[in-house]
Amino acid sequence: MSFLLDVHMQYQCQFKLSPVLLVFICSHCISVYFENDAFICDSLCSVFSPLFVTWKKVVNGGEPRLRGCIGTLEACQLINGFRDYALTSALRDRRFPPIQAKELPNLECTVSILTDYETANNYLDWEVGKHGIIIEFVDDYNTRRSATYLPEVPAHEGRLYCPF
């Protein structure tokens, strides 16, 4: 089984973990799920950080298309977090049907370790491609809403600034 690995560390990683290793862990997790195999990294380390796992699928040599992306803004043990979110983003992202075993050779995995949260001074106080953004507000029905955009999302969408 082969995977196309696209390694992006969205922030300067202060941890002594190889980005290739983190992508391998995510790829291994989904392979283990489909092959009912054993997870090999259970006690690798105990580093904690917020994280996201993104799956993209390449079809007919075209641009990779989003297939799933889920993570957590709360710090969790990276190894367990990547194992859990590799599967959650592959199988439970409500925007897409679950990834199937036959798709594995065409998948790219990107892992994002989030660090150094800071509060913006205003809505323009961030750099596209460098900062992710978390938008939080209460709607007209008094329901709390939020959205998270990893640093590469606005850049991929061609945004030079936040339009709102």
Automatic annotation (TrEMBL):
Species of the source: Gossypium laxum
Name of the protein this chain belongs to: AMMECR1 domain-containing protein
Entry-linked Gene3D superfamilies: Hypothetical protein ph0010, domain 1
Domain AMMECR1: 14-164
Listed InterPro entries: AMMECR1, AMMECR1_dom_sf, AMMECR1_domain, AMMECR1_N
Coiled coil: none
